Amino acid sequence: MIDRLKGNKVVGVKQTVKALKNNTVKTLYVSKDADESLIKPLIELAEENSIDIIKVDTMKDLGRLCGIDVSAAIAALLK
């Protein structure tokens, strides 16, 4: 597994939605234990735009990957 996401990124549902709508996302990172009702629309949008989706085991792991001290449901690496 990766130690840390390198490059420009956004963390969280609101920031990721903005990035997806602006077509600036290269890779989407989704935690497997996130609330599906929150992340499912973002996953669908990413799939429609042929964006790579990487699943991370837990929200805590995703937060750590993003370099933050809190859990994260979703994050995006930007182009």
Automatic annotation (TrEMBL):
<dbReference type="Pfam" id="PF01248">
    <property type="entry name" value="Ribosomal_L7Ae"/>
</dbReference>
<dbReference type="GO" id="GO:0005840">
    <property type="term" value="C:ribosome"/>
</dbReference>
<keyword id="KW-0687">Ribonucleoprotein</keyword>
<dbReference type="InterPro" id="IPR029064">
    <property type="entry name" value="Ribosomal_eL30-like_sf"/>
</dbReference>
<protein>
    <submittedName>
        <fullName>50S ribosomal protein L7ae-like protein</fullName>
    </submittedName>
</protein>
<feature type="domain" description="Ribosomal protein eL8/eL30/eS12/Gadd45">
    <location>
        <begin position="9"/>
        <end position="75"/>
    </location>
</feature>
<dbReference type="InterPro" id="IPR004038">
    <property type="entry name" value="Ribosomal_eL8/eL30/eS12/Gad45"/>
</dbReference>
<keyword id="KW-0689">Ribosomal protein</keyword>
